[in-house]
Amino acid sequence: MAEHEQNHPAKRPATAARRRSDLGTVLKAGVAALVVLGVAPFFLDIYTVNVLIRALLLAALALTVDLLWGYTGILTFGQSAFFGIGAYACALVFTHWGFGAGWAILALGLGIVAAMAVAALAGWLAFYHGASPLYGSIVTLALPIVLTQVVFAGGRTTGSSSGLSGFPTYYWSIEIWFWIAGAFLVAVTALAWLFVRSDMGRVLVAIRENETRCAYLGIPVSRIKIMLLVAAGAIGAVAGFGYAAFTNVVAPELTGFLLGTELLIWVALGGRGTLIGPVIGAILIDVTSSYLSGSLPFYWKLLVGVLFVVVIVALPQGLMPEVTKLWRRMVPGARRTAKAPTIEPAPVREVAPRVEQPLAVRGVHRHFGSLQVLQGIDFVANEGELLSLVGPNGAGKTTLIRCLADGYERSGGDIKVFGRDLGRGPPDRCVALGIGRKFQTANVFATLTVAECLRVARYRLEPPSIWSSDNTLALPEAARRIVEETGLAESLDTEARHLAHGQKQALELAMVLALEPRIVLLDEPTAGLTRNERERIGAILTSLTERERLSILLVEHDLDFVREISSRVIVLHQGKIVLDGSVKEVVGSELVREIYAGTALDGGGGGP
Amino acid sequence: MGVLLLDIVTTAAILFAVASGLMIILGVMKLINFAHGAFLTIGGYAAYATTQLGWNPWLAIPFAALVGFVLGLIVERAIVRPLYARPLDAILATWGLGIIIGQVITIVFGRQVQFVQSPISGAIEFLGQSYSTYRLVLVALAAVLALALTALLYYTRFGLNARAVIMNEDLARGLGIDSTRVRLTTFGLGAALASMAGALITPLISVDPNLGLPWLVNSFMLVLVSGISIPGLMVASLILGGAQVVVSTYLSAILGGLTIVVLAAVILRIRPQGLFSG
């Protein structure tokens, strides 16, 4: 992402005024938290302070779980692994190599680097295009199990099952350790807060809500997930290092799967996707556990288990949102609504005159096992052409669209986009070549607002900031027209899930056009729309081809609509192109009539 | 060499028996039951109760299955049913359920390790080796279990309904199959199988409130690698269980402990749908 950040200012000068961040609020809250933490040790007994230090460090770890799971939707069991790596880095260096400021810095550095390397490896394994969310969880489950066994295998060096203890460390007063842990947690929370409220933070939520849509908007989902895991690993390692340096004890349990699941419990109870909830959850539960471990250990754990199940079943968002609701009810005016950004025209990009055709498809075929869904597909699409793909159900229309939008889809054949080979690559490569795809069913990000959805769609052209959000939203003319003409402009701060069906379809179309594609693939864009809405979309599509010279590929069942707006029609039947011609030719064709009547060739498969 | 082969076969049989309950639930309900380990523990304590009551040790197996089935029905109704649309949350809720079961067992039976009387003790001569009789009996029992499960899925009304739900739940419902009931029965069956497996393995290992935990992750991995099919699970248990035995024997027991997890993660990366599916 770094490279994007660098070329951003060149594209559109960002001034402080057009960026909105919570920096002020976060600074105030952070200072307040630091003051509380600063005086707390003087009012608490030594035991509580002791217990709290551990809880503060674990809360930072829980925060990383919230970033991964609560915000991005990666259910992780493995954050304990990074905590363990940091802790063991400290214990191993201090035990075997030496102790002192230099050694401490080295140990911390080693811990962070090792955790980041492990995270990168796990992320590479877990997150690839087409991976199921479950597979990511499997990798994060395997990680702590493997690491615990590595510790066991380490024999004397790692202390095996009994761990390491009694290594030299800084015997600072307990208040100092408390302040270090507290300042670390406040810093991590503040940074995480700015991050999740930034435009990049919205991208994380978009990935959680609809990873497929993200991929087809050209967002490098896997890379973002890997980077996030690497960052979370680094934070975890620092927390683990602090834990080992303070307690002077490390044990294999610190890297274990059970701690990993405990983190999930804290986050779930506190409230996933709220940052503050998990921090409070971690601190409260861990401290209480320490207090009750002597007197009521089993009953307390039972209670936490019951609470956990009840929250997951009945209150999946955890307790924090309930607290917030209560607060808003009691304190009128506490509700802050972020102002929707103002829409402005995106800078018009020079489109170099192209010699090559936008799309040249040769010999594309696709089979599932022995089933041939597409065979011998040859066609070209020209600039300014609105090309309709028609054919009965099962003719292979949607499969063809898929082959054009995802390089991995086709079984064979060549696709050239403006003369460049589409090759084998994930959807974001296709987007980079200028292809935008709209899905058959409205595919938007349910909990993001209309403006946020559009902003996410601009990811590739205007990389989002990771610390702030932009007060303006630049959209190309085509997307702007849709937003204005379909009433979306009035609901920029409405969450997408509250939109009417037609508006969702329009929003997704606007998102695709926000990519500034040169080729637009539309799979039944008018399904379920009213006549009025359909006409409006039709007019926009025609003007896109006429004024901006886009080439549009349209899959459509409504033959009247096709007749009105197409400049050319391709008829697919049983996976082959049977006709490629003008509207007139197709409408007058006996063959097409037979196909739709189900009498053509060898029977055909059902009518429209 | 003979002992190694016997170890591989008996380990595979044990893994198959332990994982089958998890697979039935995942196959029909598309739900990962992280309380699976806790149901194994329940079976272990059912066997312990059988010993304490002075019953015939063989009775532990049906008794454990019954306890598991009844508890499974209750759990499905109370916890699992609201979570069908949220599969990742179901993992967490059943994990929480596992904590609850573990703590209740601890409160009732205490934390200490218990022992269960084995239905058969001693060793017999097999393929020229002296080998634990009970482990060999387990192989026969696992084979019976595989046959019984296959028969249940392919020759009973429940099996037909369950397969219909697996293939296309909406259509099955449209055809008048009570999918809610299929799910309820399936969860009960899966819990019963887990509990029964817990009773089966307890003569080999001691009983404590965390008995099931180490088996949970391995079962989970085996089921995913199997591609959710009974022969698939048999082969997966044989390959991964075999690898575990070989690594434990020739390299180290510690590395053996992570063989299944690591191999499964790699296999699933290459074949996400598992080894034996379509």
Keywords, please?
heterodimer; A: 608 residues; alpha/beta; six-stranded mixed sheet; four-stranded antiparallel sheet; 16 strands; 56% helix; disordered N terminus; B: 278 residues; mainly alpha; two-stranded antiparallel ribbon; 2 strands; 3% strand; globular
Architecture overview:
The complex is a heterodimer of chains A (608) and B (278). Chain A has 608 residues and is α/β, with parallel strands linked by helices. In chain A, 56% of the residues lie in helices and 12% in strands. Chain A contains 24 helices and 16 strands. In chain A, helix 3 runs antiparallel to helix 11 (221-247), helix 3 crosses helix 12 and helix 12 crosses helix 13 (276-295). Mean pLDDT of chain A is 88; it is low at 1-16 and 602-608. By secondary structure, chain B is mostly helical. Chain B has one domain (2-210). Chain B has eleven helices and two strands; from the N terminus they run H-H-H-H-E-E-H-H-H-H-H-H-H. Chain B has a two-stranded antiparallel sheet. In chain B, a hairpin with a 2-residue loop joins strand 1 and strand 2 (129-132). In chain B, helix 1 runs antiparallel to helix 8 (179-201). Chain B is globular, with a radius of gyration of 18 Å. At the A-B interface, helix 6, helix 12 and helix 14 of A face helix 4, helix 9 and helix 11 of B.
